[in-house]
Design goal:
The complex is a heterotrimer of chains A (about 625), B (about 270) and C (about 250). Chain A is of the alpha/beta class and about 625 residues long. Chain A contains 19 helices and 21 strands. Chain A has a five-stranded parallel sheet, with helices on one face. Chain A starts with a strand and ends with a helix. The mean pLDDT of chain A is about 95. The N terminus of chain B is likely disordered. Chain B contains eight helices and seven strands, in the order βαββαααβββααααβ. Classes of the chains: A alpha/beta (about 625), B mainly alpha (about 270), C alpha+beta (about 250). The interface between A and C is large, with 68 and 59 residues. The structure holds flavin-adenine dinucleotide, iron/sulfur cluster (SF4) (2 copies) and FE2/S2 (inorganic) cluster (FES) (2 copies). The site of flavin-adenine dinucleotide (FAD) has 44 residues of chain A, from helix 1, strand 3, helix 4, strand 8 and helix 5. Chain A: Its cofactor is FAD. Chain A: InterPro entries: FAD-dep_OxRdtase_2_FAD-bd, FAD/NAD-bd_sf, Fum_R/Succ_DH_flav-like_C_sf, Fum_Rdtase/Succ_DH_flav-like_C, SdhA/FrdA/AprA, Succ_DH/fumarate_Rdtase_cat_sf. Chain A: One of its GO terms (molecular function) is steroid dehydrogenase activity, acting on the CH-CH group of donors.
């Protein structure tokens, strides 16, 4: 047994994406000694890949925009399953969070009068996304990273040690949360670089580990997205909600095979790109669902006019929420009107001069040129749905980000509720900032309120160590890469964009078997930077999360947002009132139903009755009527 | 940042060879070396011989010998006057400005790159190890003087004016306006010299590069965008002007030596 | 469409290691990183290589391919002939941890030495007004994905380990230029660029620009303009005189 490196902090933030960094900055600003732990190098987290922008109702481009409109769009996008308090806070605070970035050095694209420019995006009524070309995530993470550095420089001046109050532990993976009784007491992990173990003693842990996309074959997500935070929370006793809702982004690359799934940003459509099938038809006009009928154009002429005159025209159906577009593409391909490589065409080349395309969509131009040998200024792109984002995650308190386990907090993609059953593009980056800050503040306040520091039992540390070492010690175990690939294929085929009860059950059977096989995987090689070993450890998390997804998907007998059941195609007002909460019991996942709380009076009356009646039960509607009457 | 307690031995990958590049990386520095050396030799020989730099009547004056202000210069070439006594042999007639021109090109950001790579092999090509054991770059004397480039740029502006005067002067002979192939060559050379001089990085900086608020100086910003476009071609212009200078001088040399008749269009 | 490619990959821990030969399948449209992943999945499960996005956005997969610093995920196999041996080695300028993974902490250290963005006192978030033309130059530099290929290729430290303490490398000299050109930054960065970050070491030989996967014109747009700005402050006789006479406080150009 080797010596375990130990550190003591007030707050440990797991994840250095937008949410994690914002949380850490907040905790440090509140005077807490903070550690940030991340699997990759500092500044490489997934947030770096976000392209389109961060949604914030600043009203710079269209002054009619305000938080109420943003709130309505968010609820609509999530099909009213959102945690409305989160949606409210998000809409209210996003502008401040974006402005704050600017004061930390971010350089967004500008409007003519020198304010932050905002662009259109699917589901947003007004141009709302603060952006920098199509590399907004990079700007966001770099700014936060540089803010951390600025704080470290401050600490260096004050205390002579830049890492006195905030330290980044990069290429370090957390495998277990440690508890003292009911409460969080720290976290256990390993250095990827050396394979040595590290133990954090801390009363508060903020999870900001992002998503779960690596459980699917076709995904826009990187190797980091193995659902670690989701699994850590489960194992620590917290509940996960909305796990059945997975966003398949409508436009991922479909060819060549090695880049299948890599994202084609929605800005392509926001800036004028159109979808066509192999017959050259703009098919999206046929897929406008009833709930959105009066908000979207019915003719190509009207749709085209919208780009220049948004006040007097309705938006093109290419800008419907992602779930609608993804399903539409799926149906076109299934009906045999797909491209040779099984996608549809996304075309900007006929819509804008080449120069403009290169200016507005530089990284897309670059990406297609380099990876697919396609010049998007001359030819259409081939695109198809790709697993992109999980709406579900740790159930948290909206105001503080606190999970049900004392001392555990979550923010960003790993938390659940904010986006309901479907996330609007651009709402994630702002979510990271708003709730990252809130979780950091929540953790700091929690630490302040403690009378004694919890202490993790030594035994738990030793167990975590043994668990992590197991794959290395197994001679000739199963190849973790094979198990991983089979899981991805299973989830993709059986719990993908369109789901059926029997297929999901089949997937659950397969997951059970894979769980056994994952238990006997072996990793060749030593402890130093051994990706095979790391994958073997990650398998546990991916399997747990996949189980949650499949089980919740099987239970929810309706179609809503990121969950489409072939056998239950309609949206059901009764199901809207139910949240499915996953908890771990031993080594299996159990699901409980929970009632979705009703919206606060002043929020529900922001909507028209006509709209609400598509979502609410009769009982809820009569409550609404009573409210309106009272106010009148 | 990284594990401080790491027990991994940390050193660079021990790869024996100087580079693993398999392409012909040595071609570019070799070409530069050959090109610059050839040009320098040509210029040295032509200026040191003090001959065939002036075509009387057509008023062609080689840029290598301009301004020609010594008593050694041909009568007609002294259109700026006679400021200096006769030169001993081997001294270039244009000696008054040649140091500035040489200085301008020697401290030019492009030529620096070119000769650091091809003459000094520092580095010979990207990801190819350089042969020197120590390197201080432009941090100390003498190379710190490269920072004076901007003053050579100012001087080069004056020289460009002189060259322009020469080119225009050649159009006016005894019988008024005149034009031959030599005039066009002189003119082309001068245009290229201006393009090269204005595309200078120092020029780009002075016009507006030094500002932080372009929007408050719209005119300077417009100039800056224009010069930035030229600046992107600075390397090409550096070579083109070497070419046009040598060509102009050679043409005048050949005509002056009566080897070649000038092609006349007018008068 | 697939074929068997010959790969030579540097493998080892710490500095010791060697080039190992592999024969591995390659399919249409693949990049070098795909092939390395296939090696991981089929022959060498513990082959260490960094990557994240597989789309040239995160700057993790920096390596040297046939001697040239490149991103593994952006180097298409179709740029090689089928019988060419592809040699993959770790970045040379930084210490090796294992195989293709190097210790790039040098870069994070240098990042921390550049004083951060310093806005004037009194400007509140939300009050910033900047014209597009005023931010464009710095925006180009902010495209940087921190792959550190430029710092890796720069001969100042690649060939001279001893220069590391005195030279921040093109990446961070560019960061200084970015801040110096920021319309709201009020710190004087010119003296420090020369004295602490070693701008003078750069001999503008442009290898950083040649390898930058984001095609940032590092030398032309950041380093040379920064050198010129330094000249303004330090090598301009008039400024120098003025400084001497009026002991002028450092101040930025308008
Ligand atoms: C291609 C792409 C484009 C997108 N475009 C947009 C967009 O335009 N607008 C928008 O709003 N959203 C967009 N999104 C979504 C958005 O980028 C993500 O949802 C968001 O960045 C998630 O941020 P995060 O802070 O939650 O986590 P991440 O940024 O993913 O960070 C996760 C962090 O957790 C660390 N981590 C994970 N597990 C562990 C562990 N076990 N131990 C230690 N550390 C761990 C990781 O190393 C990483 O640092 C996009 C997503 C993708 C993939
Ligand atoms: S131009 Fe300067 S910084 Fe860039 S590689 Fe060359 S010497 Fe290094
Ligand atoms: S400037 Fe270019 S080469 Fe250097 S780190 Fe940034 S992206 Fe990489
Ligand atoms: S002349 Fe080449 S940079 Fe000035
Ligand atoms: S993997 Fe992100 S740049 Fe190559």
């Amino acid at each position: 047994m080797t010596e375990i490196e130990r550190h003591s902090y007030d707050v440990v933030v797991i994840g250095a994406g937008g949410a994690g960094l914002r949380a850490a900055i907040e905790a440090r600003q509140q005077g807490k000694r903070t550690a940030v732990v991340c699997k990759s190098l500092f500044g490489k987290a997934h947030t770096v890949m976000a392209e389109g922008g961060a949604a914030a109702a600043m009203g710079n481009v269209n002054p009619s925009d305000n938080w109420q409109v943003h709130f309505r769009d968010t609820m609509r996008g999530g099909k009213f399953l959102n945690n409305w308090r989160m949606a409210e806070l998000h809409a209210q605070e996003a502008p401040d969070r974006v402005w704050e970035l600017e004061a930390w050095g971010a350089l967004f694209d500008r409007t003519k009068d020198g304010k932050i420019s905002q662009r259109n995006f699917g589901g947003h009524e007004y141009p709302r996304l603060a952006h920098v070309g199509d590399r907004t995530g990079l700007e966001l993470i770099r700014t936060l990273q540089q803010r951390v550095v600025a704080l470290q420089q401050e600490d260096d001046k004050l205390h002579g040690d830049p890492e006195a109050y905030i330290k980044v532990f990069q290429e370090c993976t957390v495998t277990r949360l440690l508890k003292d009784g009911d409460a969080i007491a720290g976290a256990f992990g390993y250095w990827r670089e050396t394979g040595n173990f590290i133990c954090f003693e801390a009363p508060a842990v903020v999870l900001a580990t992002g998503g779960i996309g690596k459980s699917y074959v076709v995904t826009s997500n990187s190797w980091e997205y193995t659902g670690d935070g989701h699994a850590l929370a489960l194992m620590a006793g917290a509940g996960l909600i909305n796990m059945e809702f997975i966003q398949f982004h409508p436009t991922g690359m479909v060819w060549p095979p090695s880049v299948r799934g890599i994202l084609v940003t929605e800005s392509v459509r926001g800036d004028g790109g159109v979808l066509r099938n192999s017959e050259g038809k703009r098919f999206m006009f046929e897929y406008v669902p009833d709930v959105f009928k009066d908000k979207y154009a019915t003719t190509e002429e009207e749709a085209d006019r919208w780009y220049t005159d948004q006040a007097n025209n309705r938006r093109p159906p290419e800008l419907l929420p992602r779930d609608e577009v993804a399903r539409a593409i799926n149906s076109e391909v299934k009906a045999g009107r797909g491209t040779p490589h099984g996608g549809v065409y996304l075309d900007v080349s006929t819509r804008m001069p080449a120069e403009e395309i290169v200016r507005r969509l530089p990284s897309m131009h670059h990406q297609f040129k380099e990876l697919a040998d396609v010049d998007i200024t001359r030819e259409p792109m081939e695109v198809g749905p790709t697993c992109h984002y999980i709406m579900g995650g740790v159930e948290v308190d909206a105001d503080t980000g606190a999970a049900s386990v004392p001392g555990l907090f979550a923010a960003g993609e790993v938390s659940g509720g904010m986006h309901g059953s479907n996330r609007l593009g651009g709402n994630s980056l702002s979510d990271l900032l708003v709730f990252g800050r809130r979780a950091g503040a929540g953790a700091a306040a929690y630490v302040d309120g403690l009378t004694a520091r919890p202490k993790a039992p030594e035994e738990a540390v030793r167990q975590a160590e043994a668990e992590a070492l197991a794959p290395l010690e197994r001679e000739g175990g199963e190849n973790p890469y094979t198990v991983h690939h089979e899981l991805q294929q299973t989830m993709n085929d059986l719990v993908g964009i369109i789901r059926k009860a029997d297929e999901i059950s089949e997937a659950l059977g397969a997951i059970e078997k894979l769980k056994e096989r994952a238990g006997v995987t072996g990793a060749a090689g030593g402890r130093i930077y051994n990706p095979g070993w790391h994958l073997a450890i990650d398998l546990r998390n991916m399997l747990l999360v996949s189980e949650c997804v499949a089980k919740a998907a099987l239970l929810r007998e309706e179609s809503r947002g990121g969950h489409t059941r072939d056998d239950f195609p309609g949206m059901s007002p009764e199901w809207r009132r139910k949240l499915l909460v996953c908890r771990l019991d031993g080594s299996t996942v159990n699901i409980e139903e929970k009632v979705q709380p009703s919206m606060r009076d002043d929020l529900i009356t922001l909507f028209e009755r006509d709209e609400l009646k598509k979502y609410l039960t009769e009982a809820e509607l009569s409550e609404y009527d009573a409210l309106v009457e009272k106010e009148a | 940042m990284a594990a401080t307690t790491s027990e991994v031995r940390k050193q660079r990958a021990q790869i024996g060879v100087r580079t693993l590049r398999g392409d012909r990386w040595w071609l570019a520095p070799l070409g530069t070396f050959a090109g610059l050396t050839a040009w320098l030799l040509y210029a040295l020989i032509r200026t040191a011989t003090q001959s065939n730099y002036w075509v009387d009547g057509y008023n062609y004056l080689s840029p290598f010998s301009s301004p020609c202000v010594s008593a050694s210069c041909a009568e007609g070439a002294r259109h700026f006057g006679t400021w200096l006594p006769e030169f001993p042999p081997l001294i270039p007639l244009g000696i008054l400005v040649l140091p500035f021109l040489l200085g301008f090109r020697l401290t030019c950001y492009y030529y620096r790159k070119a000769y650091y790579r091809s003459f000094w092999l520092s580095p010979p090509a990207c990801a190819v190890a350089e042969p020197h054991s120590k390197y201080t770059g432009e941090t100390r004397f003498p190379l710190i003087a490269q920072n004076l480039h901007r003053y050579f740029f100012y001087a080069a502006l004056v020289v460009s004016l002189i060259n322009t005067y020469d080119a225009v002067y050649a159009f006016f002979g005894k019988n008024g306006f005149q034009m031959g192939l030599g005039n066009l060559i002189l003119l082309g050379n001068v245009i290229m010299l201006w393009a090269y001089t204005l595309s200078c990085h120092s020029c780009r900086h002075i016009t507006a590069g030094r500002l932080n608020h372009f929007s408050r100086h719209p005119l300077r910003y417009r100039m800056w965008t224009w010069i930035s476009k030229l600046n992107a071609k600075h390397m090409q212009l550096a070579w083109i002007t070497l070419g046009t200078l040598a060509l102009t001088d050679a043409y005048i040399g050949l005509v002056a030596a009566d080897v070649l008749p000038d092609l006349r269009f007018f008068n | 469409m697939g074929y068997k490619a010959k790969f030579r990959v540097w493998r080892g821990e710490g500095g010791d290691g060697r080039l190992e030969d592999f024969t591995v399948e390659v399919n249409e449209g693949e990049v070098v990183l795909d092939v390395l992943h296939r090696l991981q999945a089929t022959q060498t499960p513990d082959l260490a290589v960094r990557w994240n996005c597989k789309a040239g956005k995160c700057g993790s997969c920096s390596m040297e391919i046939n001697g040239k610093p490149r991103l593994g995920c952006m180097t298409r196999m179709s740029t090689f002939t089928e019988d060419e041996t592809v040699t993959v080695t770790p970045l040379r300028t930084f210490p090796v941890i294992k195989d293709l993974v190097t210790d790039v902490s040098f870069n994070y250290q240098k990042a921390r030495e550049v004083p951060s963005f310093t806005p004037p006192a009194g400007v509140k978030p939300g009050e910033y007004r900047m014209k597009q033309v005023d931010v464009e130059r710095s925006q180009e530099f902010r495209k940087c994905i921190e792959c550190f290929l430029c710092n890796n290729v720069c001969h100042v430290i690649r060939d001279h380990e001893e220069n590391k303490p005195n030279f921040s490398g093109p990446r961070f000299l560019m960061r200084i230029a970015e801040l110096d050109m920021h319309p709201y930054d009020v710190a004087d960065r010119k003296q420090a660029a020369q004295d602490q970050h070693g701008l003078g070491y750069c001999n503008i030989t442009k290898c950083c620009t040649e390898v930058c996967p984001e095609h940032i014109k590092i030398t032309d747009n950041a380093l040379i303009p920064l050198k010129e700005r330094v000249v303004d402050r330090r090598y301009d006789p008039l400024v120098w005189l003025g400084d001497k006479i009026f002991r002028r406080r450092s101040e930025k150009t308008s």
